[in-house]
Amino acid sequence: MNHTLRRTLSVTAALVAGLSLAACSGTEGTGDAAPGEQAGTEHAEMEQAEHHNEADTEFAQMMIVHHQGAVEMSELALEKSESPAVQGLANRIAAAQQPEIDRMTDWLDEWGEESDPAAMDMESMDHEGMDMSGDGMEGMDHGDVDTEPVSQDEAMATLETLDGADFDRQFLHFMIAHHQGALTMSQNQTSEGVNEDALALAADIAEAQAAEIAEMEELAAQVAG
Predict the structure, then answer these.
(1) DSSP notation for 5-49
(2) Contact present, 199 and 186 (Cβ < 8 Å)
(3) pTM of the full predicted structure?
(4) Which of 51, 60, 201 is nearest to 111 (CA)?
(5) What is the pLDDT of residue 89?
(6) Cβ-based neighbours of 56, under 8 Å, separated by 6 or more
(7) Under 8 Å CB-to-CB from 174, ≥6 apart: which residues?
(8) CA 220, CA 140: separation in Å to the nearest integer?
(9) Cα(165)–Cα(143) distance, rounded to whole angstroms?
(10) How many H helices and E strands in the chain?
(11) Who's near 89: CB < 8 A, 6+ residues apart?
């Protein structure tokens, strides 16, 4: 083989080897980028989930306590109410709000915030929405229900003394006022919160509880009649 031919073959081999190496490097680079991009996406999603402000924290903390009050009253209604409609409503309230309590508890844990209601500094929080006096119900016929401002403990103590239609009237009055408080809390969250999950839950709570208020007002009118 002459010198010129050997030199041509050597150059060709070098080019082929170079192209093969580049192709392998490109393939390996693509393979490495995919997990990196996935990790970056997961990190961004985690950052978004953890992104919150003081309003988000207070919304979750206060709504947990608020929901627990509704669940507590609903469980009592399942024991004492004689109205299938009231019992059905109470069952739906408890079934919907307990999972929301669990979700908000998980958020607070993820955010590094206090999630135990017993350890929360409730005195420093805005208690608007925790009063079950029914101040926004001036147009309703209250009949013989207690319309004085009451706490959760006072509401439960009152309900424990009642049965039948008397229980139903008082339960509906308290729960309407309780739901109105949740609407106020949800509106505050919509105005001041930043966490997307908390904002979405506030919107869901407002929609669901506004519908339940309308339902309870109709039931209250039937019980009063």
Answers:
(1) HHHHHHHHHHHHHHHHHHHHHHHHHHHHHHHHHHHHHHHHHHHHH
(2) no
(3) 0.71
(4) 51
(5) 98
(6) 107, 111, 189, 193, 194, 195, 198
(7) 73, 132, 134, 150, 155, 158, 159
(8) 9
(9) 12
(10) 6, 0
(11) 77, 212, 215, 216, 219
Token pair listed for 40: 């970056």
Give yes or no for a contact between 89 and 223, defined as CB atoms under 8 angstroms apart.
no
How far is Cα 108 from Cα 119, in angstroms, rounded to an integer? 13
Q: Which residues, in sequence order, are CB contacts of 209 under 8 Å at separation 6+? A: 179, 182, 183, 186
Give start and end residues of each alpha helix (H) in 51-138.
54-80, 84-111
Q: How many CA atoms lie within 13 A of 41 on its CB side?
A: 6
Q: Token pair for residue 183?
A: 């609407």
pLDDT in tens, the chain (225 residues): 554 444 544 544 444 455 444 444 444 444 454 555 665 555 555 555 579 999 999 999 999 999 999 999 999 999 999 999 999 999 999 999 999 999 999 999 999 999 988 777 655 444 444 555 544 433 334 456 666 658 999 999 999 999 999 999 999 999 999 999 999 999 999 999 999 999 999 999 999 999 999 999 999 999 876
Residue matched to tokens 């930043």:
194
| Other beta carbons within 10 Å of 158 | 18
Amino acid in the structure at residue 167: F
**Whole-angstrom distance, CA of residue 77 vs CA of residue 198:** 29
